[in-house]
Amino acid sequence: MKPALAAKNATKKIPIIISNTSDAVRSGFVASLAWPGGNITGLTSIGGELVGQRLDLLKEVIPTLSRVGFLWSPTSPTTSFNLKETEAVARSLGVSIQSLEVKDSDEIERAFETASSKRSEALLLDAGGFFAANQNRIIDLALKHRLPASYSNARYVEAGGLLTYGPDRWAQYRRAADYADKILKGAKPADLPVERPQKFELVINLKTAKQIGLIIPPNVLARADKVIR
Q: What is the pTM of this model?
């Protein structure tokens, strides 16, 4: 999100195409999805809804799951909404959410220690640039504490995280190229509706599952779009 925000603050005239920004409306990039109204358009993510779905996926993987740590940062403008959505899904699943706020990188390890001391059985990671910048450290700590963790996108899983369910980012990037083509042909960003993701992917890292002693149920594994072995 930080690069998109920097571009937004730098110009009000040059067209800007976003490809995977968390909730473009709540983040303040556009006035609405149908009518962006400025120089920004493209594709947005749907963080809150997906965090709930990723919690549901964790429950499928661990049927006895009852306590989940939700790792979040106040640097993300969508965190409050995401947390509320997650808690609503958690109630329906009979799962308690343990809020783990991380204000800076020095607090990451402490958050994992808190999760362990409060007996969290899994971890749900919110989206955002702060966590992306600390990706490897978070993955290593999840492995160290043997916490099954669900991440916001496939990059984490490719780097050693357990699993994710979210938009196919390569499909998002290809679609962003279509926006560029339209703008180069004269279309105005203000008139091009911002799109929500159309294609999603479930990615599972079986090597990581083995490291933490977790067996992925066959019915979940069968639905995976990509399995890292």
A: 0.86
Q: What does residue 185 show for φ and ψ, rounded to 5 degrees?
A: -90, 5
Mean pLDDT of the chain: 91
Give tens-digit pLDDT for 8-62.
Answer: 778 888 999 998 777 788 778 888 899 998 999 999 877 667 888 899 999 999 9
Instruction: Assign domain 2-45+168-198 to its CATH superfamily.
Output: Response regulator (3.40.50.2300)
Model pLDDT, residue 23: 78
Looking at residue 128, its pLDDT comes to 83
Q: 100: which strand partners?
A: 71
Yes or no: say if 152 and 125 are a contact pair by the CB < 8 Å rule: yes
Handedness of CA 57, 126, 7, 39 (dihedral sign): positive
Pick 47-166+201-228's CATH classification: 3.40.630.10, 3.40.50.300, 3.40.50.2300, 2.40.50.140: 3.40.50.2300
